[in-house]
Amino acid sequence: DIQMTQSPSSLSASVGDRVTITCRASQGISNYLAWFQQKPGKAPKSLIYAASSLQSGVPSKFSGSGSGTYFTLTISSLQPEDFATYYCQQYNSYPYTFGQGTKLEIK
Amino acid sequence: EVQLVQSGAEVKKPGESLKISCKGSGYSFTTYWIGWVRQMPGKGLEWMGIIYPDDSDTRYSPSFQGQVTISADKSITTAYLQWSSLKASDTAMYYCARLRRAVTGTLFFDYWGQGTLVTVSS
């Protein structure tokens, strides 16, 4: 299985800040990388696919980049509703594995 | 509007069987894969497997192969996740999600169900 490692595991930031979360794959996955947001008690929400393409309806404050084994998710101008847990997931090969999650908290 | 509506919470005893459902609407059910994802209490997301409802082609994670069965009934646009003998360690939230096919043929999640909480306790 491909292992996905996110860093940091948790992150404190203030409203208005810009933050970046990284995701590393244990082997090359081209750009077959997705990002999800999950708020407490809610289902995950799809944000990004193909490393940098926004899902329909996702605001442009979310951006993704990377290829191969190194990927980033950047969130600009943090708002209260952005504080959540974020997961990356590779879909290059089965089983499609998730990272362990990054919890973004308000400072 | 694409919707995936999952069945309600379940409380079961160890050894019992269970089948939970995920009903798709607002799109062509037979032309999109549906997947299942487990989230144990306080933990992250785990990819369990996927099914193509048109022909019931299925892929399982090795971690879940033999532990669960994924199926679908295209006549009622519903996918299922079932256990023949539940364990306490099956206690978790289970999500279904639709997968969209990219031009490269790869599959990624787009829409998610609301989740079904399964509690297994004696």
Key traits:
A: 107 residues, mainly beta, six-stranded mixed sheet, four-stranded antiparallel sheet, B: 122 residues, seven-stranded mixed sheet, globular
Can you offer a commentary on this structure?
- The complex is a heterodimer of chains A (107) and B (122).
- Chain A contains no helices and ten strands.
- Chain A has 107 residues and is mainly beta.
- In chain A, the strands form two sheets. A six-stranded mixed sheet of chain A has the order 2-10-9-4-5-6, with no helix packed on it. In chain A, strands 1-3-8-7 form a four-stranded antiparallel sheet, with no helix packed on it.
- In chain A, a hairpin with a 2-residue loop joins β7 and β8.
- Chain A is globular and about 35 Å long.
- In chain A, 37% of the residues are buried.
- The model of chain A has no long low-confidence stretch (mean pLDDT 97).
- The model of chain B has no long low-confidence stretch (mean pLDDT 97).
- In chain B, the strands form two sheets. In chain B, strands 2, 4, 5, 6, 9, 10 and 11 form a seven-stranded mixed sheet that branches. Chain B has a four-stranded antiparallel sheet with strand order 1-3-8-7, with no helix packed on it.
- Chain B is built from no helices and eleven strands.
- Chains A and B meet through β4 and β5 of A and β5, β9 and β10 of B.
